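Hey, resending since the last one bounced:
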Amino acid sequence: MVDDDVDLEEWGIPLKSTSKQRIIWSNIVKTWEQFSGRIPEPSLDIGAASTKGRTVSMDPFPRGKVDVRAIGEALPFIESHFASVVLESVLKHVLSPQQTLEEANRVLRSGSLLFLTSPVNHTDSHRHSFSVKQLCDLIDNSGFRIVKKMGLGFSFSFIDGLFQRRGARFYSKIRVPTRICRTLFVVAKKK
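The structure tokens again:
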């Protein structure tokens, strides 16, 4: 069960998402809402996650409806156009995470926000994997200042499973230390 305070359908989160995905999204949405009320608009959603409102969704290989088909390393937008950029689990797929973040910085207005999630502390079959330090350094070196970071899910599947069996409501309230988290959620401000 996902936290009742969060209307995931309103945010465009598919009903067929797995329980674990819905729990993680519930945490992300609650954090976004706590931080800024809503994601500042207009927003650019690189990777076409599931944001809503005045959002331009962009993906090079869309599975569904997107507004723009492009890659993160070469954004087809003018400088300083967006009030926020969302990168939900995208950096692990792109050719150049550094260039993607630099492009996100270029299209953001001064002082605007980057909302980013990425798997950390483990390797898998994706193009890139990061430690928490590597990801934070990458964000910092791309012209952002991290204003909030939060760990979601444990990197040890056994522990993760124990907490999930306690129920989604309990699991969604756990703040995981970043050194052992599975996913890092970051809010960063353009310098």
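Residues 88 and 183 are 10 Å apart (CA to CA).

Sorry for the duplicate.
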